[in-house]
Amino acid sequence: MERNLRRLALPAALGTLGGLYVTQSILGGFIWSALPAFMRAQGMALEHLGFLSLLVLPWALKFLWSPWVERWRRPKGRAPRTKALIASGGGLVMAALLVMSDQGGTPLFPLIATLFVIATATATVDIACDGHAVEAFPSSAYSWANMMQVGGAYVGAALGGGLVLVAIDRWGWQPGLAVLAGLCLTCTLPFLVLRQPAPRSEPAAGGASLRRALARPELRRGLLVTALFVAAMKSTLAFFGPFLVDKGFSLTEVGLYSASGSLVVGLIGAVLGGVVVARLGTLAVLMIALFGQAVVLAYCLGVAAGLPLPLGPLAVLTQIISNAWLAFGFVALYARFMQWSDPQQAGVDFTLFQCMDAGIGMVLGVVGAQIAGVFGYPALFSSALLCSLFCAYGIARQIDLGTASGVR
Q1: Which structural domain, as residue segments, surrounds residue 10?
Q2: 8-state DSSP, 50
Q3: pLDDT value at residue 261
């Protein structure tokens, strides 16, 4: 490992790793933040917007093919194929964006089919990114790698969910997608061009296994905590943008608020989350984040119900403050993902946690769209608040998680 780091300094290796995570989140921010707001501005019904949540399906199911991906990427006795896998996935994404540029954002279902290709490619590439992060760096550098992952996610969300939306609003659909493609290429190429550190150990004997992962009680308990926290924090995430559009905010305003929330406040929340979890423990950080998000939901409910509340703070709360609470909680949760993962098959274990995150988000996106479309925003936000209370209670019931998995 030391020989590898002499060829490529640790900061440079971490920087190129961060670029990969930025690319992943650029595409995610575009699909789940910019696109719903754009489609709503084009007059799409809320019920139809719910179908966009199906694009989370590859992220929810990628654990099914993660052992195969890891076995192919790390052939026994041969050099890793990480770069080849990432380059192939990137090429597929570029081709899909080219096809999508001719679709003009409508009709919905051909667009969803193209986006499904992008989501599947990025979900597969993410398996390789996580595996590389765990295997190529010493455990002493895991905190930095985790910062690249969480920080890259918020930088990417700012670019994909904010900057790209502004570009589409100002210049049109095709130029906006050109900006999206250019950002992805810029952030991915350094990893492909520069020499990367080799794995610190041989692949696990017998190969990666889902059965081995799910047999561990601490991993199953971690999956339960993940499901509860995601359900509370993300139940209305995809509808904040459409809600602002319906309240008279322009796409540029939504994009700028989203970008600033992700890029600045999200990063601050991630850093503070890391500091606070070291002092108070993971459960305390999760509960604080849940309370903060509940305040955001309560204000949205008041506005949706017609209470005489000012609209000005709405964009700040949903696009900036909400991002801060998400970052604050998720940096603690993702740090635990690394600890809950078995080092011998960390790529598969880490993928299981991410799939739980994505799967819960997808289901809630579809259900939330139907609630909002049929019963309106007040029903959506009130049900989200009730969900938060239930999930907070469920997480509190896992207080003995500290004994089972080292969580305080």
Answers
A1: 2-402
A2: G
A3: 63
